């Protein structure tokens, strides 16, 4: 990959050891994926900040970089941490976990990363324009940025996103290139389905597409909430980073010989059955990805007082909700996937998120009931 004279100087250490390491990470990625150069970006979104997922090794890495006094050079934002930064005691998080988590936040903040702590930066006012190059790393946010907003980003890892934040550039490959933003497989959904479950549809599509771009025919309308659920499901089961839906997403190109796959209701019911490990749970958890304000209001309206309900959302949305029923807890900065949920005494949750069901069973080893929001809230 070609480097400019200025980039070569950074690599040689003229701006310090950590900037040199950051550029080396970007150069290595660029060489692996045959990028021709580094390109400027307008923002980064950095995943891998929960102590649950990165542990002591990740904490030491971040503290080492922070000790050198480096600062990000583009607006940069954090993915969810392992706890609500203000109400972690209410969640049941241990003091030891909280101390380590706060050290991670402190290290990132000292480098200039904003503690947004959300997987839905676009619901917190962080909305790149169509065609803007960014370096985001949360899988569902990547799908949303590419698909719905028309921005351009690859699915970054935490270290590569942080490196891009410190340099202000990312390698020019993958979905940054126009020629790669084209669908390789087409899914045809019947138009007469009532109450299409976008989360299950996304998971089904992701399993088949893997890292290909899917185009979905048959969806006539979809809200941002439905599209974020669709992208989250597809990113969880596969490596999907972009989805196209004619009439809804800004980009819709498909290869002439793309495979066409029909989607039946039975396919989605099979996904639901596969991701459900039990039939009932007393605790319901919503917000993977983080709930919008409209979703929170809907949950409160449909509230089942016999269930303990946890809602995860952005700080901005959390502050707007008043008169919360006693059985409902609203948390920000985290979610059920990246928090130490089993250590908090929760061994089973009901969720409407295929992504949550997938990761909670694999990472947290807890029991899952996967159903629609309405089914969960109406259950005895």
Your description of this structure?
The model has no long low-confidence stretch (mean pLDDT 96). Helices cover 39% and strands 17% of the residues. With 380 residues, it is an alpha/beta fold. The N and C termini lie far apart (59 Å). The longest helix is centred in the N-terminal third of the chain and has 17 residues, at 51-67. The chain has 3 domains: 5-178, Aconitase, domain 3 (2-Layer Sandwich); 182-271, no CATH class; 276-378. The protein has helices spanning 5-11, 17-32, 51-67, 88-91, 95-110, 139-149, 158-167, 198-209, 224-237, 265-275, 293-301, 315-320, 354-364, 373-378; strands at residues 38-40, 44-46, 76-78, 135-136, 169-171, 183-189, 214-217, 254-263, 283-291, 308-313, 328-332, 348-351, 367-370. The strands form 5 sheets. Strands 3-2-4 form a 3-stranded parallel sheet. Strands 7-6-8 form a 3-stranded parallel sheet.
Question: Which tags fit this structure?
Answer:
380 residues, alpha/beta, Aconitase, domain 3, 3 domains, three-stranded parallel β-sheet
How many domains comprise the coordinates?
3
User: What is the CA–CA distance across the termini?
Assistant: 59 Å
Mean pLDDT: 96
**What is the class of the largest domain in the CATH system?**
Alpha Beta
E-strand count = 13
> At the third CATH level, what is the topology name of the largest domain?
Aconitase, domain 3
Helices and strands: which structural class?
Answer: alpha/beta
Task: Summarize the helix and strand pattern as letters.
Answer: HHEEHEHHEHHEEHEHEHEHEHEEHEH
Low confidence ranges? none
Second-tier CATH architecture of the largest domain = 2-Layer Sandwich
Give the biggest sheet: 3 strands, parallel
Strand order of the largest sheet: 3-2-4
Q: Tell me the helix content.
A: 25-40%
Portion in beta strands: 15-25%
Rg estimate, integer Å: 21 Å
Total count of helical runs of at least 4 residues: 14
């Amino acid at each position: 990959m070609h480097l400019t004279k200025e980039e070569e100087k950074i690599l040689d250490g003229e701006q310090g050891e950590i900037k040199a390491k950051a550029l080396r990470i970007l150069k290595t990625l660029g060489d692996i994926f045959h990028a021709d150069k580094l390109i400027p970006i307008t923002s980064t979104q950095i995943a891998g900040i929960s102590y649950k997922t990165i542990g002591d090794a990740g904490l030491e890495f971040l503290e080492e970089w922070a000790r050198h006094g480096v600062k990000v050079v583009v607006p940069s934002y954090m993915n969810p941490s392992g706890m609500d930064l203000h109400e972690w005691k209410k969640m049941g998080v241990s003091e030891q976990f909280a101390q380590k988590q706060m050290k991670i936040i402190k290290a990132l903040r000292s480098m200039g990363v904003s503690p947004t702590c959300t997987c839905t930066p676009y619901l917190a006012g962080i909305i790149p324009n169509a065609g803007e190059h960014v370096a985001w790393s949360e899988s569902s946010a990547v799908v949303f940025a590419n698909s719905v907003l028309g921005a351009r980003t690859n699915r970054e890892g935490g270290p590569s996103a942080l490196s891009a934040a410190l340099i202000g550039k990312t390698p020019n490959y993958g979905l940054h290139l126009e020629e790669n933003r084209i669908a390789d497989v087409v899914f045809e959904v019947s138009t007469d389905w009532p109450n299409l479950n976008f989360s299950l549809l996304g998971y089904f599509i992701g399993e088949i597409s893997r890292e290909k771009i899917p185009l979905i025919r048959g969806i006539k309308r979809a809200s941002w909430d439905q599209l974020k659920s669709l992208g989250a499901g597809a990113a969880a089961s596969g490596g999907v980073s972009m989805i196209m839906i004619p009439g809804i997403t800004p980009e819709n190109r498909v290869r002439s010989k793309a495979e066409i796959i029909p989607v039946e209701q039975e396919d989605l019911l099979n996904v639901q059955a596969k991701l459900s490990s039990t039939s009932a749970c007393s605790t319901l958890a919503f917000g993977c990805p983080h709930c919008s304000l409209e979703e929170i209001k809907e949950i409160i309206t449909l509230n089942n007082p016999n269930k303990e309900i946890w809602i995860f959302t952005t700080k901005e949305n959390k502050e707007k909700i008043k008169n919360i029923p006693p059985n409902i807890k609203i948390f920000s900065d985290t979610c059920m996937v990246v928090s130490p949920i089993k250590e908090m005494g929760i061994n089973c949750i009901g969720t409407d998120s295929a992504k949550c069901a997938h990761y909670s069973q694999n990472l947290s080893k807890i029991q899952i009931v996967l159903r629609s929001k309405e089914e969960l809230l109406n259950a005895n």
